[in-house]
Amino acid sequence: HMYAIDYRELFPNNGIAGNGKISLQLIKTLGYITNPNVFVCPSGDGIADLAATAVNTDYRYDQTLSEKSNADSPMANDDTESAHPLPKSVSVVYVDGHVDQRGTLPANTTE
């Protein structure tokens, strides 16, 4: 949400449809995120290093959302349905910041 404060309530968007992970890179490039570990799922086996980028993240992202979007809209989630044990195998963060688990990937987030 810090990025959105500076960018008219918009979330990171690189302007190319379907490039959620590249849009996430904006928050690292512009200095909003300095710890590469935020791009690695704590339940996964990935290891972040100082050169980590959002393009290599464990997450999918919907770059079309903003602060004005419905609070219950999925904004980001694990990039696979096998990240956590079934039946709820996908962690999802919503526009209002809450996190929940569900059984399938949201249709609106992209690689």
- In terms of DSSP E residues, the strand content is 15-25%
Q: Main β-sheet, in a few words?
A: 4 strands, antiparallel
Give helix and strand order, one letter per element, not per position: HHEEEE
Can you give the mean pLDDT?
Answer: 81
- What Rg, in angstroms, do the CA atoms define? 13 Å
How would you explain this protein's 3D organization?
The protein is α+β, with helices and mostly antiparallel strands and 111 residues long. Helices cover 14% and strands 15% of the residues. The chain has helices at residues 2-6, 20-29; strands spanning 59-61, 74-78, 90-94, 99-102. It has a 4-stranded antiparallel β-sheet. A hairpin with a 4-residue loop joins strand 3 and strand 4 (99-102). The chain is globular and about 40 Å long. It starts with a helix and ends in a 9-residue tail after the last strand.
